[in-house]
Fold each of these.
Amino acid sequence: MKRKKSFLVFGLLSIFIFLGLGTWQVYRKVEKEALLKSLERTQKATPENLDSLKSITALQPIFAEGHFLAEKTIFLKAKTHQGKSGVYVLNVFQTQGGKYLLVQRGWASYEITALPQGNLKVEGVLKTPVLPNYFQPSNEPPSYFWIDLPLISQTLNVPLLPYYLVATSSFDAEIFPVKPFPSLTNNHLQYALTWYFLAFALGIMLLWHKYFYLKR
C-alpha cells in the first residue's frame, strides 16, 4: 500500500513539474517573438554613419568611410562554410573620423592577406564579442579562435573600438560574407504542448491507477 501511495505522490509531483515546464515554454515563446520582431526591425533599419553615432546598440546597421590598414590582419581559425573548413578574415579599418574598427570581412578557404585599396565605404552590422565556450581553444597570437578585442588591440597596437563590424561586402571574390544576424526559430509552442500533453497523460494514468488498480 505504501508503494502505491508513493507512486501517486511521485506522479502528482511530476505533473506539477511538467505543467511548470510547459508554462515556462509559453513565456519563452513570448520572449522569442519579441526578439524576432526586434531583429526584423533592425534588419530593415537604415545604416548610420559610425563617425556620427553618439551611442551604439547591439546588431546596429552602420556604415563607415575610410581605409583598411596594412599589416593589421588576423584570422579566426577553424571556421566552416558550406561544409568546408577555413578562416574568418578580419582587418582593421580606420574611419575618416579617426576611429579604428575591426571588420570581419567573411570566410575564406585560406589566409588571404591582400587588402582592398583606397578610400572605401564598408557597411554591415555592429556586434559585441561573446565569451568563448568551454570547448574553444585559447587565443595565442597570431593564432586566434575567437574575438578578444583587448588582446587583438594590444597585439596589433591599435586602439580598437569595443565592438566589431560583420561586413555585408568583403571586397574580394574569394572571401564570402557571413550573415550578421543569427538564424532563430520559435518552437516553444510545440515544446509547451509536449509538456502539457505529458502532464495530461500522466494525470490519466494516475486516475486509472486510483480508480481501477487500487480498488482491486
Amino acid sequence: MGLPRSTTATLRKTLSKDVRASRAVSLRHRAEYWLVRSLLGLLGWLPHRVARALCAVLATLSFALWPRLRGVGLRNLQLAYPEWTSRARCRVLFRSFQNLGRMLADFSHFPRWNRKNIERLIVYDGYENFLSAQSQGKGLLFLTAHFGSWELGSFAHGIYGHPVNFVVRRLDNPLIDHLVDRYRCLSGGRSIEKGDFARQALKALRQDEAVGILMDQNMLPSEGVFVDFFGHTACTTTGPARVARKTGAPVTLGLVIWDPQQRKYRLRFDSVEWIAREDPEEEIVVNTAHYAKLLERYVRRYPEQWLWVHRRWKTRPPGEPPVY
C-alpha cells in the first residue's frame, strides 16, 4: 500500500526544491530532515493499522527513554491534580504519549485521506454550532488546543469542504518545517506564522474565512495575560479575544477527541459566548479567562488526550518562583 503516485510525486518535487533552496542550513538540519522524511514515508507506506501499532511502540519507548519530557509531564499533572496518586499521574501521562503516537501514524497518512474515506477516521460532532457561526458572514475564529489529534482538525475540516487558516510557530529546522507544512496543507488549509497572526487573521476574516489558533501554549508576559488554568495562573494569548472584539467574528471551540468506543475521532464544535464589559482591556482579559476555562473542562474530561509535556506554567507573575 503506497501513497498515490500523484501525491508522492508532488511532495518529492516540492520538498526537493525546499532542500535545494536551503543550502545554508546545517548538516544537522539535513540529517534530521531525512530522518523525519524517511519515518513519515515508511509510516505512510504501511497499512494504517500497522502504522498505528508501530507508533504505539515508538510512544512507549519515548515514555521510557525520554526522562526530561516525562518529568515535565508528571510535574504538570502534579500541579493540575495534586489529589492524585503518583501512579494515577503516571498512567495518564503514558496514555498521553500513546495519543501522540496515534496522531503521528494518522498524520503520516494524510495523503491517503479524501472525502470518500475520511469518515473512517473522523466524524463531526456539534456541526450545527459551526454552521450557526459560519452563517453570520463575519468569518470564524476556532479555538483549539494540543488536544487529541490537533493536526487532524483543520486537515479533516478541509477534506469536508471547509479549509481553515491555522496559526503555527515555525519549526527550528526549516527543512522539516517545509515538510510538515506540506502535509498540513494537503486539504486546502493555509498556515499563518505566529508572528503575523493579527494581520493575516484580520485579512482572512474579512474574506469570511475561518482561522484556527491553539490556546494552550505558554506565552511571554508581553504576549499574553495571566488567567486561571487548573487553579494556577497561566500566561495565555489574548490574540483570539482581541481579534474577536475588533471584528465581531463569532468564536467556536473546536477540538478533536478520540472516541475509544467508535475507534475514531470526533471533531467537536461548541459555540462560545462573548462576555461584554465596559472597559475594553477588562473585556479582553475576561474572555481570555473564559476561553481557558472552557478548554480546562475538556482536559479534565479527557486528561489523557492533552499534551502534558508542554511547560504550560513556565511564565510566572512577577515575584513568583519557577515551577519547573
Amino acid sequence: MSGGVDSTACALLLREQYQVRGFFMQLVQPDFAEQLQRVQNIADRCNIPLQVIDLRSQFQEKVLHYFSTSYHNGSTPNPCMICNPEIKFGLFMDAVIEQGMEKIATGHYANIVEKEDCLYLQQGEDARKDQSYFLARLSQKQLARVLFPLGTMQKDDVYDFVETHGFTDFKGQESQDICFLGTESIGDFLQKESGDSSATGDIVNTAGEILGQHNGICNYTIGQRKGLGISAASPLYVVQIDADQNRIIVGGNDELFQRKIEIKDLMWNCDKRPTVDKSYRVRIRYGHQGGEASIELLPEKRCRITFKDQQRAVTRGQFAVIYDQDLILGSGEII
C-alpha cells in the first residue's frame, strides 16, 4: 500500500475474494511519517492490518547508488527499472511471502498472461496509464507471485470505484515520478549525496565551439531546450552529455534523431529470442509509444535495434523495452 488511489482500489477489490493484509515500504521517503499516517488511515478504513517493511539500507545500496553513479557518468537513469525487480518485487516481495502471504498485489496498470508455458507482461487496458514498461525486468519467479487487479480497468473507473466505498479525496492526486526526491531537485540531491554534482563546465556545439557554461551535467537531459542560458539564431537542444570532458553538447533539432541504437544487459522473457526477419515495437522511454524496429543480436548480452523511422532524443541510461504486439519480449539499457 502506498496511500494512493490505485493500491487502495486493489485492497478494496481483493478483500472481496481473499484474506488481505497491507504492507508499506519504508525507503528513504522525505515525508515518510506523513505517508505512513495516510496509509494507516486507509488500511483502517479498509479494515485490513498494516505492516511496515524497512528497506532503507538496501534501497540506498541498490537504487540510490545506481542513480547517483549514472548521472555522474553522463547517463540519465531510470530508478524504477532497478527498484521494481530488486526492491519492490525482490526484497519487499520476499519479506511479504515470509509473512505467510501467497501473492503480492500492486496497483500497476499491466496484465500477466500465460502463453506456451511462459508468463508474459502485457500492456494494461488503459493505454494512458499502462505501466508494463516499468515492469519489464521482472523474472518468471516474480511474475508467478504477482496480481495486477487494475490491469483491465480504466483509471476513471478506478476513481469511481473507490468513491463508492467512501474515498472521495483522491482525484487530482498523482504519485511523484521519483519517490525519494520529494520537493528536492536532482541537482540538490546529488550535491548532498556526493558533493560534486554541480561542477560547472562548457556548453559547446557539435563543432566544439564554446557557447556558454553549464551548472552541472546532472541538471541536463537529452532533448532539453529550456534553461540552457545561451542564445542562437535557431533553437538549440542538448544532443549529448560528455561526462569525461564535463561538457554539454548542443545542436539543432535534426541532430536529435537517429535510427540505430545499441543496448546492453539484455534480459529476454523465458529466454525467448527475437526472430531475425520479424519487426517488433520498441519503446525507448516511458512516455514513448514505441517504434517499429528489427533486432540484431550481439555478443555479451547486447543487441542493435534498427528503427523503421528515426527516433528523437534517444537517451543513454534509459531502457529500451521490446514488445511483440502487446507482450513484453525483452529489455536492456541504452548505451
